[in-house]
Amino acid sequence: MKTLLKYGILAILLSCHLQVSAQSPIFGKGIYMRFGIGSASFYHADKSEPLVAPLYALPRLNVSTSFEIQASLGKRVALLFQFGSVRVRSKVRDIWTTAVHEAFPNTYITTDFPLLFPDQEYSRYPLRGMLGGAYLMEYQRWSVQLRALVGGFSSFPNTAYAVIKQPDSNALSTLSISLQADNYDADQGVAAFVGSLGLLTHRTIWRRWGVYGKVEWTAFRSPFTFDYVLENQVDGSRTTRSYGDTYPRMIHELEAHVGISFQLARFKK
Amino acid sequence: MKNRYLPLAFLSICLTLCGFHCGVECFTIPISITRGEAFSLDNRGQEPVVLEAPAHGFLSAYGIQVQLECEFAEGSGDTWTSDCDMLQLTTPIRECRIYTLLDMPNGYAAGDDVSALFRFVDRNARPLKYRPLSEAPALIPQNLFPDIKAKFDFLLIQPPSQNGTCQFEFRMETTDSTLLSITTNPILLQ
Questions:
Q1: Please, which pLDDT band fits residue B75 given cuts at 50, 70 and 90?
Q2: Inter-chain contact A112–B44, Cβ cutoff 8 Å?
Q3: Distance from B136 to chain A by nearest Cα, in Å?
Q4: Do B129 and A112 touch (CB under 8 A)?
Q5: Smallest Cα–Cα separation from A80: which of A34, A133, A33?
Q6: Global ipTM
Q7: N or C: where does chain B have the smaller number of CB atoms within 10 Å of the terminal CB?
Q8: For an interface test with B, which of A100, A104, A166, A170 has the most B Cβ atoms less than 10 Å from its Cβ?
Q9: In which element (H, E) is residue A80 found?
Q10: CATH of A2-266, one of 3.30.460.40, 2.40.160.20, 3.40.50.300, 3.10.310.10
Q11: How far does the CA of residue A105 sit from the closest CA of chain B (Å)?
């Protein structure tokens, strides 16, 4: 069934290609600019660890934006530069504090996020920049593109602390879940190489203006490694764990965007 | 014609910038700890609460809060000259100790050093840690503010097994061998 689906899609794309290869009155060599908005969903296998997963700040269903420049080198081939950001919807403070309360019931909990400003409840926006190419199939006002891009992804995971105090007692423990990524930088976050495949459909609506829709699948190797340290402040005993090596490391992102397109320049033939 | 004034304008700007930048000089303002008070704490809740005199304490959640007061040291001028001035204790703290003034049910006699039963807590520090008293001198900030009480907690982590009245003395010695001794009120711990 999968094979049939795979070759069926290929056959459809090939037939589209053959049909549209005859003429292309609207498009041509030139530079196009696109701005779009849509949703980005992250899929990774680390959701099962409630004390660590919120700090990744890569939840399902986020609003994302993208900006791209396309340089069409001919009827068939284009170079792409794409820049995008994801507006993370997860309220890191609330979600993590709730997770700590559930992990340590009947205690007083105070949480602290040293990488977030005091009034900041969301993580900073993950950013992505990519370069790549596209194979173009154009017919009258329509253009369909198969695209492949590679680049870098920068995310801003959090380090979190909690003070866990027993009622009616001086007994107190501290919990720290701290980011241990090698390439972490406070301004630029944690970086990872990404690869992306996508399909874009463009329709010219008036002069140089057009609208487009695209879907993209992006995958990157998780750069996140966290150390868990639970320290009993009375007797000094420590429980330590490391999260990252023992978890599946690939993170997948599915994006669907719509937006507007503008032809900045057209090259002479 | 206009170019004639350019070097003059440039020179004026440079001198103005230099005046702004070079005029700032930072000083270290000496301060010294002048007095302190010690209070009994009830630490059963999320945050410790100072116990009033007639109240009794709780064995498993008892602590001492030490409040230190500072003043500008003699000859410091009592004034800030710029935002970058730094306050600094003239004589840093060398040692902190806690002694019991009454016989305790767990074998300690009046006058014994019971520092090992307590842990130092600076609640302004992040992350919060319980520290042995031997580490307290290094952890108490050197830039305490005059006229603002600096508060530090010393929590009893090895309480006596039986009820009894307790009274403690907190002794703090500075590097010039000045001794600050403050005592808590006697309190029934149960």
A1: low
A2: no
A3: 15
A4: no
A5: A133
A6: 0.79
A7: N
A8: A170
A9: strand A77-87
A10: 2.40.160.20
A11: 14
